[in-house]
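pinned: reference chain
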Amino acid sequence: MRTQILAIDPGNEKSGVVRFEVDDRELYGVKIIESNGAMDNENLLEYIVMNRLRDCWVAIETPKPMGMAVAGQTMETLIFIGRLCETVDNLDKQHETGIDWSYVFRMDVKLHLCGQSRAKDTNVTQAIKDRFGGCQKPVKCDDCKGRGKSGRGKAKAPCEPCSGTGLDKIAGPLHGITKHAWQAMGVGLWFRDNRLVQRKIINPGGKDNRESGIKHIEFDQVNVIE
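pinned: its C-alpha cells
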C-alpha cells in the first residue's frame, strides 16, 4: 500500500493541485500522478468526493495571521480552505477511505526548499526544479522522428535506438506541471519530507495557550527514504 499526497495551493476561485505517491522505488522518492495549475475550486471539491482517494493526505497551503489588513480575496481563500477540510472529513466519515488533511504554512515551505523566508514563488519553483533536475521535456528520436517504427510498408519494425518509444529522452517527473501547481508541489514536498500534521494555526510566541495540534506521522515504511 502506498501513501498518496494531494497537495493544494488554494485560491479564491482556482487552485494549484498536485497528487503524488510517496515511493522510494522512484529516483526522487515520489511518483507524480497528475497535476493541474488552475483547477476551479468547485471542480476540486467534486474531484475529491468522486475519486474517494484512499490512504491520502491532503496538504493545504494556509496563511498565518501577520498583523496586517487582509484582502477580500484572502478571506475568500480561507473560507475555501474550510470547505476543503470539511469535504475531506465528511468523505472519510461516510466511506472510511483513510483520507485526512493538514495545514502547511507558506513560510515553512520557503525555508525548507530555499532556506530563505524572503523567497518568492519563482525561487520555490526553481528549488523544485533543482531537486528533480529540471523539467526534462521529451525529445523525439532522430532515427524514427518520433514515429517509433522504422522501415517501409509491411517491413516496418520497432525502432531499435528508441525501443519503439519514439523518444530519445522521455519526459522527466516534473514535465506538465504549470502555474500554481508548482507551489502546490512545494507544499507536498514539505509535507512528504517533514511528516508533520498541523491542525491549528498558532504563531510561535503568540498569546495562544492551546496545544499546537502538531503530530508526527510515518508513511508506509516500504516507501520512505530516510
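why pinned: The chain has a mean pLDDT of 87. The first helix runs from residue 41 to 51.
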